[in-house]
Predict the structure.
Amino acid sequence: MSRLVLVRHGRTAWNSEGRAQGHTDVSLDDVGRAQAAALAPALARLEPTALWSSDLARARETAAAVEAATGLTARYDARLREFDVGERAGLDVAEFAERYPEAYRAWKAGHVTGGVPGAETLEEVTARVVPALREIWAATPDGETTAVIAHGACLRVSLPELLGWPAEVGNTLRGLDNAGWVVLERDSGTSGVRLAAYNVTPATAEREIPGNGNPPIA
């Protein structure tokens, strides 16, 4: 069996303020750095043998903490970036609602970006993220684990395709917490993928890590 661990970066000031980040290169705040520090030993216990990351600062900084705990060197792939949120970048929810009321209503109804001008579509994001994740996982030897540090929305919309689920199932998934992660498993010689854990955090890791006798779905 091989495993792919998909991790959302730690918190940024814009996360705290409810501002859309997209490709804007925002660093972790103090809480985010503490989350990354707590995440690192929890991921180290999963014994990853490879580490990948989005090239955006908030992911790279989270990956740096994992590097320190595991001795691995992160490799970066721009395909793992978050949605480009177009003209919504930097806006908090109130500003978004005021400037783009139709897009705001679409977002409230479940559209990832609301369709703001310049924003990537779900299809565009999955067309870059899913192949990147599949390539990374294909390079993971049987019996080993690869960790990937990326972003909440792009991971959530990519999961159904990775798992062979209908795309609309993604709307039923709760968003990943900052420094939360997903564990996917695949048995040797098969193409089937299992969701072994969802939205595990350092606070819940002890009881949620697959194989410890507790229910694996967070």
Remarks:
- The first strand starts at residue 2 and ends at 8.
- Residues 2-84+121-208 form a domain with the Rossmann fold fold (CATH 3.40.50.1240).
- DSSP finds eight helices and six strands in the chain.
